[in-house]
């Protein structure tokens, strides 16, 4: 059999397997599987992707190509644009310019210090680990050409075919700087080749063999998804809390009505002024409210949002994820909702659900909620770095107080709707929630995103405390800017 | 009882009713209800919205304020930004600058002719009719002040409270041009007050009464949603087709393999060149593929997409809508996917599903699919106007041909996945689909977005036809530009 015929036969068999795996992946709503395609400009990154558009079902393919961040992207956390454009489950994503692209370019051009490059690679590793832990498949390919080939490649025939596609535009790197890029790439590979997402070097001098090899790697990656066989990170970094913060609170704190009214007016005016401060628009504000049912989150939030221009404000009530959201990494729906500069976002319940309700109710594995502390800290650190002030509140009531509020709600016809069977069921797990709350505060209270645990038996007291804390935090922040 | 006490009592009762209705709306996933708040700058548009943020559950509120279109918005159909930012079902949407804002400003400043203003108002009426027909509630409010009040308003106390919020920024119109605005607004109200979405004038000299009145209107609108009592447009504009286009085709059309190969190379090269033409990037391309199962849509699409840079391409496979999509106007998911300038979008099945599968399977009411022809024509006309070339294909096979393809698929292990029970069931309704197809072509073939019905017994023939038509259409278009 001629070499050509053998290649054709292999290709046809592979193609059928790939189509079937693609169909199964789609049906099972698993993945997505992401292919990061990097390498020498002449190694055929573009052709490779064309090949797969030819082989596969185009409906379940996504291609992403990121160049320099544009517009608001420059003011958001660096990984934001990758998070929000993650392809949906059941599909494949090809990345021509991935999250490695900018750091690699900048390192090879000497625009990034080794130290910063290392820090960015560590950030990327945490990002990738989180994706993989959440069921995303990752295939990181470096298309490699020997030096002999970089001069003559692509062969004449290929050249002709792709010339008209303005191949130059595909180039990540100019040929002249390629030796510097190669050095940078070696460093990148060293720093980010983990067991779960290694860089794979694909010899690319023979396009047919290159495409076949990548096809086989892709098939394997899809099969791993389907069989649930892929390696998952197992590192967890947390410690159980040793004391009960909720037991330490003074639940008798209260404000008289006239004091409340005076303080409310005072802090609301202060908050209005702070939000109008020109420096505020450079950053943004994220308020997180957690606490037991009937702790008074809604009322407290309203006292704050009343001071805010509705155009810059968004209050998100976090509920059980939709089916679509459930098939995505759990932080994604929060990444999608972080505030742009000058904006305020309030989460009425939040991503902390992972270490609260999801932990207590067993909606996620023990491994995953134990890993979530570090993931959430990382998320908030990225927000902080990009200029978002994160302030977190826990409104604390006693089980007795909750009971009397539930009973009051039951008696008030117009408030009965607020009470569901679930609320009563949750009460039975009160000690579990207390435990989860303490572990949460222990592991996620940071200097830049502290927890404020407020006794909320007296609603007036709780509201004023929250308002005061928001004002004081903003004041401090604006002074620094 | 003092006036103040009476207002307070009314407010409290209204507030409870509103909260309950809001909860029910959210639970039933109905709506959204949109409140368009327009009127005199001093009439308290902002305060009104603040009031509702104070009264209602903030989690289910959205505020939108549109000023001049920004960036890519300027190159997309005018209504695109309103479509894509429609609040989700179960929520309320407040609009400070709605789709009326720009035309109103431009008319009052003499920047828009009466004729164009009228055309824009007609476009808006069609848009609103479609929203209402799809279950969206619309409340269009004009906050009105007597001339006496425009001088003195807002009263001192209010002024003080809102001054710090930079009230001026809320202003849609400067006070000096208000008489011109009022004239324009009268014209607007005349042209766009239909029975289903009338403009309601709200006297606003007394803020308490204003808020109470709007609260009651809002409550009524929510109750109409909940009771399914709102008026719906009942106009339908279509005619049944009188002849069978599918019976007229020559299903024997075929190409020999060598001719096919030559033509394929020819047209693919031509398409590559056309897409690279600098003028192409000014507009965009939308390809719609419809046809029976196994008609060869996927293979034809791949022959076209192979010529396209994956970065500018998106192929959407249209399937049954998700639960979330089902709660939204049916065209929304397609509005969200229209191509930006320089881009190509391919729909493998499309919004025509409404007048095909949804009609045949009874997934939508007779009234709604009969109204869909005009809605779709309107959608495509807006795309055309904004520079998107729409090309629509029906790949036609006979039921016998389909049967033999199904049987072939059953015999090929790796193609069996393509065949589902649903495919077999659909076959039983062949005459209904033929009927629906003919009505569709009869009612939606337009000069700027024609249907191309291609006999596809011979796959080669069909692929070349489709490629040729895309090339010729683009060629013609680029020559004109």
TrEMBL record, chains A, B:
Gene3D superfamilies associated with the record: P-loop containing nucleotide triphosphate hydrolases
Polyphosphate kinase-2-related domain location: 3-226, 255-480
Top-level taxon of the source organism: Bacteria
Pfam families per record: PPK2 (PF03976)
Name of this chain's protein: Polyphosphate:AMP phosphotransferase
Species the sequence originates in: Halopseudomonas sabulinigri
Gene, per the UniProt record: pap
